[in-house]
Structure formats: structure tokens, C-alpha cells
Hints:
The chain is an alpha+beta fold. It contains 11 helices and 20 strands. It has 2 domains: 2-26 and 91-195, Roll (Pdz3 Domain), CATH 2.30.42.10; 199-330 and 348-395, 2-enoyl-CoA Hydratase, Chain A, domain 1.
Amino acid sequence: MRGLCKALVAIVLAIAIVSASYLAGFGTSMLLFPAKEAPSEVEQRFSVFWEAWDIVEREFYRREQLDREEMVYGAIRGALESLDDPYTAFVDPAQAAILSDDMKGNFEGIGATVTMSDDGRLFIVEPLRGKPADRAGLRRGDVILKVDDTEIKDMSLVEAIALIRGPGGTVVRLMIQREGVDEPFVVELVREKILIPVIEAHLLDEGIAYVRVHELNQQASQGLKAALEELLAQRPFGLILDLRSNPGGFLHIAVEVSSQFIDEGLILVERGKGGVERRHWALKGGLATEIPLVVLVNEGSASASEIVAGAIQDHGRGVLIGERTFGKGLVQNIHDLSDGSSLRVTISRWFTPEGRWVEDQGLIPDIEVELTAEDLEKDRDPQLERAIEYLLKEKGHG
Length: 398
């Protein structure tokens, strides 16, 4: 399964669903030394573009059918593709609206986290428990070949998501390719409203606090703080922070979340244009800086969630249990454009406190535990069980 994930383009989003990141996923940070050219230089550089545009306007045989807006968008996409960076991307207004809905955590679709591979195939990272994709039997690693009668291959991730999304109560047909199954098969799903809780928290029977952070959006920091206040008041002897399939979020939220567990020191380093560095330090006032800690991670733990896990691991604050993480070490800035479209630009790399760059490498857990398809089918969670076992042993029960 890890071999599959190494091939994935790391924009981990969700189909109505859990979209993800705005940092390292789609990150938020400061632009470092933006370069500008004089207007005359820009005009000269683009003169050949306008020559080509004018020729098409005059000579194209279906001139009356020209979609000039799409021509502009296509020109922008083509220019960005030349940068050879899958995270620097243009998003048209309709697609930008989808991503905006994702940020609110309340939308309509099938409920599955997805990503796009380098060869243009759409993979399911994880169906959300109890949602249409899960109820229909879709699995981690399934490839979506078609949505209704439209082939997915070579679409952008957001274009594919736009096809799968739709009003609640409507039907969508997905053609699925599954490893070990000879022929593709079709699954019909009824879309529904998907509400993704940012934080899930409760006290386990063993007296261990459990907190799952689904994504590091604007609600995550305050939600985590409130959950920790309630859980720690019950005097647990250990804490499990579940970052599995957390696709990322805002960089500053990653720092705030990390600071709940790390009382001082470096959280990450950004290196931007020209090698300029920006260091991000732990904030004061963390609530869970001393309690024994386990962090659960898997191949869907990406970008901003890797910042949190990497900082905890480098500081020796807790142990990582699970599977190697996704491996996204780049930060993007989002720019909303005048027509409702948006532009995401990679502005820096980020490194753990010990100087590790996770891009394409991921974080290796201190204790590796696989979660298999059979485990999922039988509702087993050996990763969580291992975390509980570890904390009980730390407490002296083992």
C-alpha cells in the first residue's frame, strides 16, 4: 500500500468529503520576497502570447464557438504546468467554490477522501465511516475510473471532485477498479449531506484520553483546546492523539496544535525563496505537555498533520504508532482572484525541528502497525489497540 502512496500527488482532498489542506496541502504562510518585473519587460515577454492569441482569433474555423474565458484559464494552467510543481495550481471559480465548501466542513457528496496519482488515476484514500462510500463497500486503494459516463483519467483532482459532488438525494454511478478483482465494476451511491466533525474526543474504558483531529482548519485549535480541557479534568493517565487520514490544514494551526503538547522549542522551519528561513516556535500555555502521549498516523496523514507529528517525534514528546505518513513538505499560499478563481503558489519547504524534510519520504512511526483491509471489514483497529497497550505498559500494567 505504501508503494501506491509514494506515487500519489500529494494534494489530498476530499469529495464532499474532507478536503484538506491549506498549508502543506494548501498552505498559509508569508510570501518571501516576491519578485516583480517592470511593465515594459512583462509586455515584451508576453508579446509572443498575444501574437498567437490574435492568430487564433482571426483564423480559427469555429471562431464563433471560442470560449475566451476557458482560453484564459487554459493559458494560466499551461504556464503553471511548466513549473513542474503539482501544488502550484490554478482553480477556476466553480472549483474554488468547492474548496470553499470543504473549508466549512459541511457539503454534499459520497463521503470519501481521495487523491490523484501521477498517472492521472483517482484513488480512494479512505471512505468516511458510515457515509455513502463506506456503506457501498468502497475501500482504501480503490480506483475510480468513471463518474457516471465520464472518464476520470487525466482530469485534475478538483475537476474529478466536482463530478462526484452533487445535491443530496441524487444518484451517482462510479466505475471502480480494485486490486485482486479481474474486471472493473459499477457502484451506485446516493449523495447526502456530509458533516465532518473537526474534533472527536472521549475517555476510553482504560482511563486513556482519546482525541482525533480530522483536519487542521480554523476550528481545530479551539476545538482541541476545549476537548483537552474536558478530558484532562477526568484525570486520564495517558493520551492518544489520532492524526490518521488527517490531510493537513493551515500552518499556523499546526503550530497552535503542536503547542498543546510541546511546552517550548522549535516546531518547524520554513525555507523560502533564496534560502530565507522562518522559524516557528512553540506557543506558551499548552494543556497536555506532560501527560504520556501516543500519536496515531498513517499514509493519509499529510502536510500540516505531519508538522504536528514530526515535532512531537523530534522532541521525544510522544511515540508515533501506525504507518509511514504521506510525505508532503511544501507550503502554499492561496490567492483569491477577482473573478472568484484562485491561485495556489508553493512558497517554501518546511522541515521538522531536527531538520528532516518529509517530501516523498514521510515520517516513519516509532512502532509500525499495519491496518489491513481485513481489519477494516471486521471493524478491528490494531493501531489503536497497540497505542492502548503501549500506554498501559508505560503506566506499569504490563
